[in-house]
Design a protein that fits this description.
elongated, 155 residues
Length: 155
């Protein structure tokens, strides 16, 4: 709050990966959930801006949960949240640095085939055929999409 008014202090980018249960009922916190989380974490780390900026980025810890949403067709999803905020003053209004970082993160996600609220299988296949570097995480098929919650961090 700033003088009694709610202000936006950052952004949350939510990455969802689908829990593969091979016909079995998924169990929150199981080894498959952890594998999906590990893949999301590797993706999350790879899409963060590399140079030091006035912004900071935090990846949520593994919370041993499975999430279902009609927006994602009630799939059993694991969530990783990337929070973008000011490095030294996390309760200040967002500025052009946070917006720039958010836009770069979203573009890097699109570059690997992720799209807001959906997964682009064809684009991911094309990228895997043309990428010259080895990916440090399992098949990108586990990343189904991303969602940018805006305003996500309001104080």
């Amino acid at each position: 709050m700033w003088n009694g008014t709610r202000i936006q202090t950052g952004f949350d980018v939510e990455l969802y990966g689908t829990h593969c249960c091979n016909g079995q009922r998924p169990t929150p916190g199981c080894e498959h959930c952890l594998e999906v989380y590990d893949a999301l974490q590797a993706i999350g780390l790879s899409i963060l801006p590399e140079e030091r900026r006035p912004s900071k980025y935090e990846l949520s810890p593994f919370d041993q949960s499975i999430r279902y949403s009609r927006m994602r067709k009630d799939r059993p999803d694991v969530l990783l949240t990337i929070t973008v905020s000011h490095r030294n003053h996390p309760m200040e209004w967002i500025d052009e640095c946070e917006v720039r970082c958010l836009n770069e993160i979203k573009q890097k996600l699109r570059d690997i085939g992720a799209e807001q609220r959906t997964w682009n299988r064809q684009k991911a296949k094309e990228l895997r055929k043309t990428e010259t570097c080895e990916l440090a995480y399992p098949d990108l098929g586990s990343l189904r999409g991303f969602h940018t919650a805006m305003p996500s961090r309001v104080s």
